[in-house]
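User: quick one, fold this
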Amino acid sequence: MPSGSGTNSQGNRYSTPGGTNSSSGSSYRYSNSNGSYYYSNDNGSKYYNSGNGSATYTSPSGQSRTYSTK
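Assistant:
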């Protein structure tokens, strides 16, 4: 992942570092052209929001939980 921010070849915006729990390190965030977004955090957790009413959180231990965001 390149450092800083920009737009990848699929038209999705990224920033790194840019996770939800860190402003440094290897965290990153994607904001996708379809309205979804994805965070990968330094602690190993991940968060994906589909942009149409559901989200999935994956803990550092790998347990996932999907829930409604409506």
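User: anything notable?
Assistant: DSSP finds no helices and seven strands in the chain.
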